[in-house]
Structure formats: C-alpha cells, structure tokens
Amino acid sequence: KxxxxxxxxxxxxxxxWDHGAGKKMQLKGAxxxxxxxxxxxxxxxxxxxxxxxxxxxxxxxxxxxxxxxxAHHGWVxxxxxxxxxxxxxxxGNDRLIKLWSFADGKLIRTLSGHESxxxxxxxxxxxxxxxxxxxxxxxxxxxxxxxxxxxxxxxYTMDAKGxxxxxxxxxxxxxxxxxxxxxxxxxxxxxxxxxxxxKNPKFLxxxxxxxxxxxxxxxxxxxxxxxxxxxxxxxxxxxxxxxxMRIEPAERGEGIDFKNSLVGQNVxxxxxxSVEKGVRHICSEGVIAGCxxxx
Length: 295
Fold this sequence. Notes:
mainly beta, four-stranded antiparallel sheet
C-alpha cells in the first residue's frame, strides 16, 4: 500500500523502512544474501528468496518469517506471485522453475530441462501465462509457460538477447519488456492472444551491466505541450505548416479525445482532419517502444 520500503542485501538481513514515520527496522530470519523480493496481491505478505535456496514468507508488518521452504539447490534467483494470489513461482541456479501453493506452501509443479540458470520469472496480468528469462545466452533464452493448464506446462522457448535479468509485463498485458545484461538494452515483445509472444523491432538502449526494470503508470501527471514546424521548398510553391498540440491524461477507459481549439485564425480547417489522423496513428503505434497511448 506504499507504507513500507524493503531491501535485502549481502549483509544477510532484511530491512524495512516506514517512510511515513521515518523509522528503519532490521528483520531477522533471512540468514543469507537476499536475492529476490516480491509481494502478495493483497499486500499482506512479502516473499523473499535467498542465496541459501530458501523461500521465505514474511507478514508485511512482522519482524520474522512466518514460513520457510527449502525451494532450490543454490540461489533462489527470482520470486513472483500470481495475479489471483494462489501461486508462487520461483527459479534458481539449479535450472528449475517451481510453482508453489500460496495457501499452504506445498510444491505443485517443477519445470525442468532448462539449459542454464533461470534469472527471472513474471506472471502475465491475466494469470494464464508466465515467462522465464536468462535460460541461455541468445538461443532459447525465453521460456513461455502455460499456467492455466493443469498441471502447468512449458509451451515453447524463443531467442532473445542473453541473460534477461529484468522482466515485466505492462499492466494491460499487451507488452513484455526484457532487460539484457549482455546486450545493454531492453527488448520489447508484443503479447498476442493468451500465449503468443512476438518480437517487436523496437528496443531501448540502457547500457551494459545488470538490468532490472519496473513499469510505472502510463498516464501523464499533468499537461504537456508540443510544437512542430514543417517547411519544404523543392521548386514551385513551398510548404509551410505549424502544429501546436496540448496533451493531458484522461480517465481510464475514455480513449483518445481529439479537439480542435483553433479560434478566429486564418487557418484552413481542411488540414485539421489530417492532423487528427496523424495523432491517432501514432497513439495506436506507440511513441516509445511500441507502447500505445490509450487514454
């Protein structure tokens, strides 16, 4: 709910900051380098994975784990909670992906056969699919998992830039972002249907090194203005135009509302439909990394 900030590191401790009260508290019981942190959907439980291979469940306002599971041999590289709150997914240095019952901590499914360490895992917002990364260098470095089937199963693998450490779906579930430590960039995949990923030609260069990422709100916090000037002279009558635009967020679900605010100016209103067409086109394609402007 935004009350606390948590951190774990090589000091074998978990730390919790209550930023409203300005207090920091050491949580006891990690006993290993904390490699992964996630939270339950209801915000009442924190999940951590450590260098010792254990999966720990912590009450969000408690000071020690309420549950400890010997999850992997070697590091727990990633922990994720399913959107419906029923599953926990973990991955580790033992090249395994495991699914656990959130309610009682029992192991539900183990997915094996991966070529190398599984760096990260993420659930699609609809809960039907999960994606794991870092399975190799470039070949078969993304694994797509059918969570909806009983039992869950590995559907297919696909190539991407290697050691995909940061991985996250957009809140709407239409895009998957994967940060590659080797390539120094974030790759974009379009989500088609329930289980298909398609490589998007767009990507974000971020530089080499460890690649973690998170996706914030898609909506602008306020108004923004832009001006574009077009000039072209290639013989005969030249071309000149200026387009002034103001953009501001709408309520979720309202869509794109284009308004012409020209008043009393000597501008041919016949050009306005072309401007609107261009605005709607770029909104549908996305300005950065293929992310659509929706409201």
